[in-house]
Design brief:
By secondary structure, this protein is α+β, with helices and mostly antiparallel strands. It has a six-stranded antiparallel barrel. Strands 15-14-23-22-19-20 form a six-stranded antiparallel beta sheet, with no helix packed on it.
Length: 449
């Protein structure tokens, strides 16, 4: 392969003139190539820091005249959070035309969303939902700074299959919201319909559509607009794509239009996975791809809604008592079934539900490994899954008894059904029994079976 840069070749940062040495090619795309590199000159006694180096193709620099200024603005502003592999410094070379930039090097524990779709990684539902939450939260932070990403898609997102932690790369796409110009319109199949039709340029509103497509892909392993109409296309050329994704888009599970339903044998992932999720999540996707297809200003699900919905989905996970598979608690299905959950998707057994805690309108399933976090006990707290403030524990002498241990450092007050009340100090445990209410200070939870 004829690489732009060769191993051992050096470039220099624009501001400090620090030497950066190319190690090896990581990958390439339509804009340029990304290399593993080391920043620092060992000949001068400098320690070397591992970094990623992106170098742009000359033809791309001709297409995006605003790129250098956009990168300089991004470097000055700094990243919205540590989830973004954000540009750190521009770099130049006396030997190679053009320029590039440095960014943090992605750790090997992260896999691409393409790996997920191709089934090269098999994360738990909890990790997958956590990754979805982290993406919604990250784009919320980006948009809050008056920026838009412009190219949310498979290739720009990585996640840790064990934890759900994410990294967002290719941040040279990022621009000021609603400011025209630049060479990026988006990635085919992720672009909002109004961009496909040529009626709009990328903005935070079009980001919302692309985010919904990405989340649907992650959870359903399928595109939300590819059903029977896509299967019937004989020549998948530009006019066909424009019609399917821009001029006449129809959600595959549109409740009032059945013309684009997924077909057995063609779209089995969507058919199998859609019924697994609770009604509230399916409603969010339905809104995204019905009213959200045509009303960019008011019809799309906001990042804050996705955050809350995905946290709720994470809290609804419980394990099948027969096979151990993760399932989702759906209160509407339980009511419709007379108090019985749907059969396990994996073994068809009717699972026994674990204890549940109601916190206002929210329900948290209290599994053997459940952890509560600050936002559970105080709705004023930001979402943060770093340090738990409570966890479900088993009685040390009676394995049939389970409790909720206080890890918060604050005093709780527990009140049983008969009115008996007692304090639950830090490190102590309240037994999980039906009807027990726990006052956490700023919120009260009721335990139910």
């Amino acid at each position: 392969m004829n690489q732009l840069l060769q191993p051992g070749q050096t470039v220099r940062t624009q501001t400090s003139q620090t030497v950066c040495t190319v190690e090896h090619l990581i990958g390439g795309g339509g804009q340029g190539e990304v290399y593993a590199a080391r920043l620092g000159d060992p000949s001068k006694g400098h320690s070397q820091t591992p970094v990623a180096l992106k170098w742009f193709f000359p033809h791309y620099l001709g297409q995006d005249r605003q790129l250098a200024q956009r990168l300089a603005d991004a470097i000055k502003a700094g990243p919205p959070s540590d989830r973004f592999l954000w540009p750190q410094e521009l770099v130049h070379s006396q030997e190679v035309a053009g320029f590039g930039y440095l960014m943090p090097l992605r750790e090997k524990r992260f896999s691409g969303i393409v790996d997920l779709v191709m089934r090269r990684v098999n994360p738990s539902f909890r990790s997958l939902v956590t990754a979805g939450f982290e993406l919604a939260h990250s784009y919320f932070q980006l948009h809050a700074k008056g920026l838009c990403y412009r190219d949310i898609s498979f290739g720009n997102v990585f996640f840790d299959p064990q934890t759900g932690e994410v990294r967002i790369c290719d941040n040279d796409n990022v621009g000021i919201d609603r400011k025209t110009g630049g060479g990026i319109g988006g990635t085919a199949r992720f672009m909002a319909p109004e961009i496909v039709r040529g009626e709009a340029t990328p903005s935070s509103q079009t980001d919302l559509f692309s985010l919904a497509v990405l989340l649907f892909y992650m959870l359903m392993n399928h595109h939300p607009l590819e059903g029977e109409r896509e299967a019937n296309i004989r020549c998948f050329d530009l006019p066909a794509m424009t019609r399917l994704y821009g001029a006449e888009p129809i959600f595959i599970f549109d409740p009032t239009d059945e013309r684009n339903r997924p077909l057995p044998g063609y779209h089995d992932n969507a058919l199998a996975l859609w019924p697994l999720y609770p009604a509230f999540l399916r409603e969010m996707f339905t809104r995204s791809f019905t009213t959200g297809l045509h009303d960019a200003s008011h019809g799309r699900v906001r990042e804050s809604e996705w955050r809350a919905g995905l946290v709720r989905l994470r809290d609804s996970i419980y394990y099948c008592t027969q096979c151990g598979a993760e399932n989702f608690y759906d209160s509407e299905a339980v009511r419709a079934n007379g108090g019985t959950p749907n059969p396990c998707w994996s073994c068809s057994h009717i699972p026994q539900l674990p204890p549940r805690m109601r916190l206002n309108r929210e329900i948290v399933l209290l599994n053997h490994d459940t952890r509560l976090f600050p936002h559970h006990l105080d709705e004023r707290e930001q979402y943060n899954f770093g340090v738990p403030v409570a966890k479900v524990v088993q009685h040390p002498r009676n394995p049939q008894i389970w409790g909720l241990q206080n890890l918060s450092g604050e005093k709780w007050v527990s009140r049983e059904q008969d009115g008996t009340a007692f304090d639950v100090l830090a490190g102590q445990t309240v037994t999980l029994s039906t009807g027990t209410r726990v006052h956490f200070g700023h919120r009260e939870g009721e335990i139910r079976f």
